[in-house]
Design a protein that fits this description.
Blueprint lengths: L4 H13 L2 H8 L3 H15 L4 E2 L6 E2 L1 H28 L4 E7 L1 H6 L1 H11 L3 E7 L2 H10 L4 E6 L6 E16 L10 E2 L7 E5 L4 H13 L4 E6 L2 H9 L5 E4 H4 L7 E8 L3 E9 L6 H14 L3
Parallel strand pairs: 3-4, 3-5, 7-11, 8-9
Antiparallel strand pairs: 1-2, 5-12, 6-10, 6-11, 6-12
Length: 297
């Protein structure tokens, strides 16, 4: 048996108005097609549905049963469509997010607060790791999204920039450069640097900038903790080059931040997702939240 829903709809209209002609007008279907549709349904069910012996069509006993059942079936189909539509708008589940420590400290709390307030039913699963590791995990599907330092060169990923900043020099308030209004990178050639660890994208970015300026920095300390780096600077153990937004978070630390103008070193933050991969409604809304906070300013 292979009953078509369209045949049920046609039969119900004919039965409701006791007329093939009226059903044809309402459904915008030629009357011969209406008749064929009902006949096809009768053949599939192996019953006579309509008493055609008089001018006004009447349902047979079998027709009355099929009419009632058809009404329930078509109502269920309508309800199914509503349920599927509701599901398409439902935002639940969990999102696997990768981010380096600095981005986690500076950007993620604001994003998480805004998103979780609007979508409390979504669990945010965070994996804190270096930029290269985050990139690889997103590419392989181990993470849904990653927030990392740009640029990256990976045609398997979709990259969206969300924040740009400049680096500045941080020195102790008693350092001999503390009174400078601006600084050149080359002026730091003989200074002791306190650097981010080699696993950080910031490490390579600063190293390359120094090499482009004509020198290899003298590295006294390396750390994965940006606040420790600034504490070491405050203790007069060296200088540090950090994104301006980190320097603005200094609190009761004896440090002076100085703009670097030659050359200007840029810090670009973005998020990455796997190109052409399925995105859940939760992930789509998470991306919308990021764009609302940072790309619609």
């Amino acid at each position: 048996m292979s009953v078509q829903f369209k045949d049920l709809e046609v039969f119900m209209k004919v039965a409701e108005f006791h007329s093939f002609t009226k059903a044809a007008e309402l459904l915008f279907i030629a009357q011969p097609s209406i008749s064929k549709s009902v006949q096809r349904l009768e053949r599939e069910l192996n019953v006579i549905l309509l008493d055609r012996s008089s001018k006004n069509l009447r349902l047979t006993d079998a027709g009355k049963i099929v009419f009632d059942k058809s009404k329930a079936i078509l109502l269920s189909i309508d309800n199914l469509s509503v349920s599927i539509n509701d599901l398409s708008n439902l935002v639940t589940g969990h999102i696997k997010i990768g981010l380096p420590q600095i981005i986690g400290a500076v950007f993620f709390p604001k994003i998480a607060q805004a998103f979780s307030h609007q979508y409390p039913g979504v669990k945010l699963e965070i994996k804190e790791d270096s930029g290269p590791v985050t990139e690889k995990l997103v590419e392989k599907g181990g993470l849904d999204i990653g927030l990392i330092v740009l640029p990256i060169m990976n045609d398997q990923l979709t990259v969206t920039s969300i924040y740009q900043d400049e680096f500045c020099l941080c020195v102790s308030s008693t350092h001999h450069l503390a009174n400078k209004h601006t600084i050149s990178l080359l002026d730091l050639k003989y200074e002791s640097f306190i650097m981010f660890a080699k696993s950080f994208a910031l490490h390579n970015l600063i190293m390359n900038a120094c090499k482009d300026a004509g020198f290899n920095p003298n590295i006294a300390f390396e750390s994965t903790q940006w606040d420790l780096i600034l504490e070491l600077v405050s203790a007069q153990l060296g200088i540090a080059i950090v994104p301006r937004i980190l320097a603005s978070k200094l609190n009761q630390v004896e440090i002076v931040s100085i703009p670097i103008k030659s050359p200007i070193i840029e810090w670009n933050i973005g998020f990455i997702t796997r190109r052409n991969a399925y995105q859940s409604n939760a992930l789509k809304e998470f991306i919308n939240t990021i764009n609302t906070l940072y790309n619609n300013r």
